[in-house]
Amino acid sequence: MIRFYFHPTPNPAKVALFLEESGLEYEIIPVDTSKGEQHLAAFRSVNPNGKVPAIVDTEGPGGKEARVFDSSAILLYLAEKTQRFCAMPADRPELLSWLFFISSGLGPFSGQAVHFQHAAPEKLPYAINRYRREIERHYRVLDEHLARREYIVGEDYSIVDMSAWGWLERAPRVLPGDAEPLAAFPNLRRFFNTISARPAVARARAVGRDLTFKRELDDEARRALFPSNYPDAAR
């Protein structure tokens, strides 16, 4: 059994997609990050960094319970556990390269683009331009790479595709104001539509819809989500 610590945001969405693709048995444990539940001791014992997603595998290696945090680490762990969606051995170096490209580039820059356009108390033109342009650059790298292939690594669908899908799903929020944010990246748009047509994607999108999470970005939420901005609330 996988205990899946979840909030409806892009990184948990990647893990939800893997779980739905693989058919692994899992239990959702909601973590309302706008209420600060990620800072509670119970969750910090799972992820000391206080972020979702995280999992606890009650049937880990050698029958020992295993905790895993960070979406890329979780995807790698689950792929190795199931021996699915991990690409051919000869493609592993490229799989790792692209997985880290997403985890260190596409993901964080998307998050900062969202932050400065939607959450920051001041709309700073330099910051907004910086992160929008970096997202466009990352999209262009992937678009050019996908001009010659259907999937990011090798010939088959893998965890790298799931990882990219998690953030591409939020492209309208990352690049707001564009009627079709992927229009300038036709190969990337085709790739996203290919992944989105998979039956497991519909199930992944439905994960957590029966749960209630705080939506208001009020002072409580800002302090919970961005505690380093508030010295008296720093965790």
How does this model look, in words?
The chain is of the alpha+beta class and 235 residues long. The chain has two domains: 2-84 and 203-233, Glutaredoxin; 89-197, Glutathione S-transferase Yfyf (Class Pi), Chain A, domain 2 (Up-down Bundle), CATH 1.20.1050. The protein contains ten helices and four strands, in the order βαβαββαααααααα. It has helices spanning 10-22, 41-44, 71-82, 92-119, 125-146, 159-168, 171-174, 186-196, 199-206, 219-225, and strands at 2-6, 26-30, 54-57, 66-69. It has a four-stranded mixed beta sheet, covered by helices on one side. α1 links the parallel β1 (2-6) and β2 (26-30). The longest helix is centred in the middle third of the chain and has 28 residues, at 92-119. The radius of gyration is 18 Å and the shape is globular. The model has no long low-confidence stretch (mean pLDDT 95).
What's the gist of this structure?
The protein is of the alpha+beta class. The protein has helices at 10-22, 41-44, 71-82, 92-119, 125-146, 159-168, 171-174, 186-196, 199-206, 219-225; strands at residues 2-6, 26-30, 54-57, 66-69.
Looking at the structure, the CATH topology of the largest domain is Glutaredoxin
Q: Which class do the helix and strand fractions yield?
A: alpha+beta
Span of the ends, CA to CA = 30 Å
Strand content: 5-15%
Strand order of the largest sheet: 2-1-3-4
- Domains (count): 2
Q: Biggest β-sheet: count, sense, barrel?
A: 4 strands, mixed
In N-to-C order, the SSE pattern is EHEHEEHHHHHHHH
What's the CATH architecture of the largest domain? 3-Layer(aba) Sandwich
CA radius of gyration: 18 Å
- The CATH superfamily of the largest domain is identified as Glutaredoxin
Estimate the global geometry from the Cα principal axes. Answer: globular
User: Which regions contain 5 or more consecutive residues with pLDDT less than 50?
Assistant: none
Helix segment tally? 10
The level 1 CATH classification of the largest domain is: Alpha Beta
| Number of DSSP-assigned strands | 4
Tell me, rounded to a whole number, the average pLDDT. Answer: 95
- Helical proportion, percent range: 40-55%
InterPro entries: Glutathione-S-Trfase_C-like, Glutathione-S-Trfase_C_sf, Glutathione_S-Trfase, Glutathione_S-Trfase_N, Thioredoxin-like_sf
Protein name: Glutathione S-transferase like protein
Domain GST N-terminal: 1-86
Domain GST C-terminal: 88-225
